[in-house]
Design a protein that fits this description.
Layout: H1 9-20, E1 25-29, H2 51-58, E2 64-68, H3 73-80, E3 91-95, E4 100-103, E5 108-110, H4 116-131, E6 139-142, E7 148-151, H5 158-175, E8 179-183, E9 186-190, H6 196-207, E10 211-216, H7 222-233, E11 238-243, H8 250-254, E12 257-259, H9 261-275
Parallel strand pairs: 1-2, 1-10, 2-3, 10-11, 11-12
Antiparallel strand pairs: 3-4, 4-5, 6-7, 7-9, 8-9
């Protein structure tokens, strides 16, 4: 694939499997930072303008396409422009790390009841943030009653705010049966038991995929990377793609291929679609 040649033997094996047997391939992608550029206000995030054409070109040539995100499924569908898009009938959007499921074929979302700890955490959060120093510029994102995210990107010192809030937020989460998921200047309080790795493995089983490509950009994607590494041990080829960022290096060191952010992911998907004929 020219400039998109994996740098590892496992990655090259996976790419060969994907190209030679696309009808048994699952392509799974994170949303923010992977299909959509990171922006200061997450509500303003939209898929890269060339993402939808690349996905619609690729989707009919593979077994299944999935977007796995910490966002509510409805938000990812809206911000990605996925609803009603021609050629995306096989798309599944797994929101809230897999707790919500949107199928393009039906346009419906299925999900269990929200964890009661989320509402309890939200009620106590203002006092916890104040007691932790206030940190001007820190703000809270509601995630459909299924999670709460504390963002530090707008603070005067985003990293200092992030580090100062880790411990008090972990304590708050633990008191209500939740966990804290760190990301790029964000600490998300959410229920345990679901992550992108669990969601990815569930999707592999559901689709019967025999090869996998996963692309992500943030710490929340590490479980999905680990899931692909586990699949490799079980004989399922997997290609790990990092949507490059100077803010997160953990994924880059484990990836088979690093591309230049969402624009690079889009080029990779477009080139892969072209390789598949």
């Amino acid at each position: 694939m020219g400039t998109h040649a994996p740098t590892t033997a496992a990655g090259r094996t996976a790419l060969d499997a994907i190209i030679n047997r696309p009808s048994t391939t699952l392509v799974a992608l994170d949303f923010d930072g992977t299909l959509a550029p990171i922006v200061e206000n997450p509500e303003d995030a939209r898929a890269h303008p060339d993402a939808l054409p690349a996905l619609t070109a690729l989707a009919p040539k593979i077994a299944a396409l999935a977007v796995i995100t910490g966002r509510p499924a409805e938000v990812a569908v809206r911000n990605g422009g996925f609803a009603g898009a021609t050629g995306l009938d096989g798309l599944t959007v797994l929101g809230h790390y897999g707790a919500e499921r949107w199928e393009a074929r039906t346009g419906r979302i299925t999900a269990p009841a929200p964890h009661p700890g989320v509402a309890a955490v939200r009620a106590e959060l203002p006092a916890v943030l104040e007691n932790a120093g206030g940190w001007q510029g820190v703000w809270v994102e509601e995630k459909g009653g299924r999670a709460v995210a504390v963002h530090t990107r707008r603070a005067i010192d985003p990293l200092a705010a992030f580090e100062a809030l880790r411990e008090p937020l972990a304590g708050l989460a633990a008191r209500h049966g939740l966990i804290v998921e760190p990301g790029r200047y964000v600490l998300e309080l959410r229920p345990p038991g679901m992550d992108k790795g669990v969601a990815l493995l569930d999707q592999v089983r559901a689709t019967g995929a025999e090869s996998v490509l996963y692309a992500g950009d943030d710490l929340g994607d590490l479980p999905a990377f680990a899931a692909v590494e586990k699949l490799r041990q079980d004989g399922v080829p997997g290609l790990l793609v990092c949507s490059g960022s100077t803010e997160v290096t953990d994924l880059a060191t484990r990836a088979d291929l690093v591309v230049d952010g969402p624009a690079g992911v889009v080029r990779l998907l477009r080139d892969l679609a072209g390789q598949l004929g």
